Amino acid sequence: MRTRTRIGGALAAAVCGLAILAPVADAQVGGGTWKSWSPGYKEQRKGCGQISGLTFKLTCSDGSGEQRAERRYETYAGGTHQFEGSFKITSMGGSRISLKQTFRDGPNAGPYFLLAVEKGGRLYAVENGQTVATGATAGTSVRVTTINQVGSSHQVYINGSLKQTDDSPSGSYYDKFGSYRTASGAGPITVQWSGIKFWTR
Asked: Which N-terminal residues, if any, form the signal peptide (predicted)?
């Protein structure tokens, strides 16, 4: 946050000197130097999905139809892109709800990685059903980080620990988060996200 407080010349010079020595951005995982990125987004609501700020709800228990409440961020092509955010489920009567997605765009558009949660707190990859982590129960804050090095690898971190690495084909991608009913899932669910950050290099 920028401050409007006026300070003395010597102190200002010292502060400026420190700023010059500081790294461009400090990501919590991935190592090296990153640049902060602020991609635009649009909200997506379908069915019984509701959005209020960073709170995303599915208010129904429908096991069919499109039920979603998400933020869809702008597309990127090439490079290495890191997403970070924390979620806390405040109530969950349903199960198998996708919380974070990395999507492919362009000619190969479609889901690439979907992180979903089951009742009981198991986090899993929708594509293959593989367990990513456990303990995502109501009231527990969970930090999710994905690093997509386009054309090389896609990594998933939970609370700072690397949990999954997959190949990342060349092409265009974008990030989404919120709450989305998977093909085998149903609500209701209320999930609050916070600390949303993006970096690139």
From this structure: 1-27
E strands, 74-171, in order: 76-77, 80-92, 95-105, 110-117, 123-125, 131-133, 141-149, 153-158, 161-167
pTM reported for the whole predicted model = 0.85
Encode pLDDT of 70-101 as tens digits: 999 999 999 999 999 999 999 999 999 999 99
Torsion 169-65-186-188 (CA) sign = positive
Residue 89: both structure tokens together: 């489920």
| Look-up of token digits 């997509």 | 148
Distance CA(160)–CA(156), nearest Å, equals: 9
Domain ranges of the chain: 26-200
Exposure letters 123-134 (e unless 16+ CB within 10 A, then b): bbbbeeeeebbe
Structure tokens at 169: 């084909």
